[in-house]
Amino acid sequence: MVNKGIITKINANTVTVKLYKSSSCSHCSCCSETNKMGSDFEFKVNQNVELGDLVTLEISEKDVVKAAFIAYIFPPILMILGYIVADHLGFSEMQSIFGSFLGLGVGFIFLAIYDRFFAKKTIDEEIKIISVEKYDPNACTNLAESCEDFF
What we know:
151 residues; 5 strands; 41% helix; membrane
């Protein structure tokens, strides 16, 4: 998966990149330019980059699928397992439903722990900058205006 963004902040070897929306709506001219930008994304780099540079980031498809599984599939699996375990232990249907929500809660707690302690390290290892286009202040007269070459 490839995405582009603009470096908005540099702190030692950590950069903050404002990503472009990569969906099909990002190519539409119906919304304003500010809506075409996605969220801020922070990670470590080992390349020489400057504020305002346009960078192209890449993450392997395998890593995207793994992240989607952890975020979207794992909690519902724990929800189903919570129901099955409660049912096999002989609880009533209402208690088994409560067990399913307990399993879902455990899944969300797992996500929070994973995000806090493992995801940042994983992101820094999996994100690669594949190209850097240096910022040219003469390319645009006003950064709020549309600039096809830079933005």
